Amino acid sequence: MVEQLYILQHKMEKRVASYTYCKREQGTDVTDNKGKTPLDVATECAPGVLNPVFFEKDSCAYKDNFDLVLALNQRYHNAIADILLSRETYLTQTCDERQTYQLHSAFEKNQPVIAYQILSKGGSLNCKDTQGRTPLLMYLQNGGKWLDIVLKRFDVPIRIECGKPFNYSEFHLLAFRKPTAPSDNLLEHYTCDVDYCFSKDGPFLKAIKAHPLGFRVIDECRDAEGYTALHRAAQGGNMLLVNKFLSWGADPTVLTPQGHSSLVLAIMYAGQISPYPSNQDRKIAERAADVLLRATRRITSFYIGCNSSQAKLTIYHLSAYRGLSGFVKTLLKDASLLGVDVNCPNLHGITPLYLAKLYVGTEETSKGKQDQWQEIVDLIEEYGGVLSYPNREVELNVIYRHLFGHHPNPFTLDEFEAGGEQFYKSGVSACREDDLNYYQTGIHINPYMEAVYGELIKRITASLSSADKLNFQEALRVRLVALKAMEDVSRLIN
């Protein structure tokens, strides 16, 4: 009977049968050979959360979103989990291994409905898994839609600890991670009646106010990497907290140990959740950059910094490379900004126009989408900009980093020496004949793979039992024959 339950739980096409099984009040504390209960399996196999289709269009519905999510997801495995949890009469605020696993598994699998059900039955948000993580830290490290709202509804305790590594600092991770729904965030609780809406402090705001530094904690509490909460909010494109922190007096001119301001971090990283640029990412970055530039100019005169005797790239360079056409337009149009030159070459001859050209034509424009980098090129040329190239050594390194997805940051803000010493150095003094064949004739077989395969095979073989080695050697022989054939074909083609 135990095996029947697990088969039903695992097979999605038999969810209704599993639901009926639970309704008949069969035992729910049984475990399989891995020690998992039916509730564990229901959590692991639950389908993705169903979201109302109008969420992205109807901003007025934000405050009710999670209630709708709960209503829409009382089905299949979520309903099964609810029934199983109704038998868990012993759920308390204790942290025994089983209860900790159940709640943490729901957070790990991004199951906010099941997490909500477990917490409603008495689960504890203070429990830690074997890695020392609370449900809050799991959410902050891994992400997950609606989990932040679940945490808020159960008033999750939040600790502000300075000097902790970013990936373990609740304070800095909360600043970095954008909320699922901006109007239902961890800062504040909103409630409305027929005539008025009211707000009270949420868990995050309570933690800030309770800290000895008060709101000064935003500027003065850094993580182990030296970033403030405003730095992390700008870096993560968390516009809610960027605006809130600035309204509470956060200083946008505070720098990271690498000399980056919140404005620079927003331009380089805001909204960038994947290595592939998207229009939505750039919109977030532009909004953050606009807000932070205005905030900076309110407290100090802002100097763009175009200077051909310095290696550092300006925000003009970085914006052009990121494709922030609206922000580039702001920089060029605003006559009150100091230190703006339409060409703006740095010490090594790198210009914003050159950096924008690297991306022109890389985006699909056939469906009415605009090429943001082409817009930047047209804009700079309209203001009199002229394309120029850096020297060959510099250009080769710029192109190499561009092709392999590296942001300009590593070679523009950190590693150039102020005195102008060349960073663009290569450890290889001359190309070998094999290198020339590989890179110039287009041979597809990497000449270095033979040595790599040899080391890999040696390590794999050493880890196998004697019985497995025979099978592995036969598979390897077939693989090597195929590779030899590919190499022969490649040479014929070239």
Automatic annotation (TrEMBL):
Q: Name one Pfam family in it.
A: Ank
SMART domains from the UniProt entry: ANK
Q: Where are the ANK repeats?
A: 225-257
Q: What are the protein's UniProt keywords?
A: ANK repeat, Repeat
Give the protein name, as stated in the record. Answer: Uncharacterized protein
Q: Which domain of life is it from?
A: Eukaryota
InterPro entries with a match to the protein in the record: Ankyrin_rpt (IPR002110), Ankyrin_rpt-contain_sf (IPR036770)
> Which organism encodes this protein?
Desmophyllum pertusum
Q: Which SUPFAM superfamilies match?
A: Ankyrin repeat
PROSITE patterns, per database record: ANK_REP_REGION, ANK_REPEAT
